[in-house]
Amino acid sequence: MSTIIYPSPIFGPVQSRRLGVSLGINLLPADGKVCSFNCIYCECGLNEDRRPRQPLPTREQVAAGLERKLQQMQEDGQMPDVLTFAGNGEPTCHPHFAEIIGDTIRLRDQYCPEAKVSVLSNSTMIHHPQVHDALMLVDNNILKLDTVDADFIRQVDQPVAHYDVGQVVERMKAFNGHLIIQTMFLKGDGIDNTTDRYVIPWLEAVRNIRPQQVMIYTIDRETPDHSLRKATHEELDIIRDRVIAMGIPCSASY
Question: Which among 95, 178, 104, 169 is positioned nearest to 135, based on CA atoms?
Fold first, then answer.
């Protein structure tokens, strides 16, 4: 069983494959996972195996913890490249997500104005106006779109509530390009979204959304489903180049 559970509300800094020196902001409990997806590749494990007993951190706890850490990093002469909302599940599920984004931008401007604010989201809450508006304020609005195939989503991402990928694509369009699409490519028993069956419709969705950037990646740590395998460098490079050919910047993390 995968057992990576992050401290809350602040963790790191860590070296991110995609973002640089990243100071993590975890809006979920420190002892378990809260997520609107139940991905079989999640490094935090499956939802049912990681039920938290602690409450969500409050808005005040997040702001206080972030300020203490930024003061410490300032004293140490090591400031982050990015403040990243990630951790034990879906950050936009927090009822005060929008207000916390405002607090974070204020503290970023005070202590490390060169740092970016990033949010890693599975896109399930972007239909809420307050979530949409908050994400419009951050530097890196990174939204998941693993595929546009509903069966694959049910099998791999396993939404815990109603999820209509067509509606999600339409909501992504509403960001008017202020988003980064993040897509996991992987293989397993009866699973492989690196093939044209999945890639071609995904590319068409990306073309219609017109994000500022696309980040594609593959599994890097232990996963709950031990049959899963990494996509190869060659497969990721081919997909990356197809995105770039559409005029959209794309990076691949192996």
Answer: 178
Asked if 179 and 211 touch (Cβ cutoff 8 Å), the reply is yes
**What residues contact residue 111 under an 8 Å CB cut-off, 6+ apart?**
67, 70, 71, 73, 74, 79
How far is Cα 137 from Cα 131, in angstroms, rounded to an integer? 10
- What is the per-residue pLDDT across 130-163, written as a single tens digit (0 to 9) for each? 999 999 999 999 999 999 999 999 999 999 999 9
User: Are the C-beta atoms of residues 123 and 101 closer than 8 Å to each other?
Assistant: no
Contact between residue 181 and residue 145 where contact means Cβ atoms under 8 Å apart:
yes
Which SS3 state, helix, strand or coil, does residue 103 take? helix
- Tell me how many degrees the CA angle 34-39-44 measures, rounded to the nearest 5: 55
Query: In sequence order, what are the beta bridge partners of 187?
Result: 192, 229
Q: Which of 80, 74, 77 is nearest to 115 (CA)?
A: 80
For residues 127, 195, 182, 177, the Cα torsion angle rounded to the nearest 10 degrees is: -70
Torsions phi, psi for 194 (to 5 deg): -90, -5
**Who contacts 36 (Cβ-Cβ below 8 Å, separation ≥6)?**
89, 90, 93, 122, 124, 125, 159, 160, 161
**Residues β-bridged to residue 180:** 142, 213
Here the tokens at position 55 are 């409450």
C-alpha distances out from residue 121 to 37, 187, 191, 233, Å: 10, 22, 23, 25
Residue that has been written with the tokens 């890097």 in this structure: 220
Q: What is the model's pLDDT at position 3?
A: 63
| pLDDT tens digits along 41-96 | 999 999 999 999 999 999 999 999 999 999 999 999 999 999 999 999 999 999 99
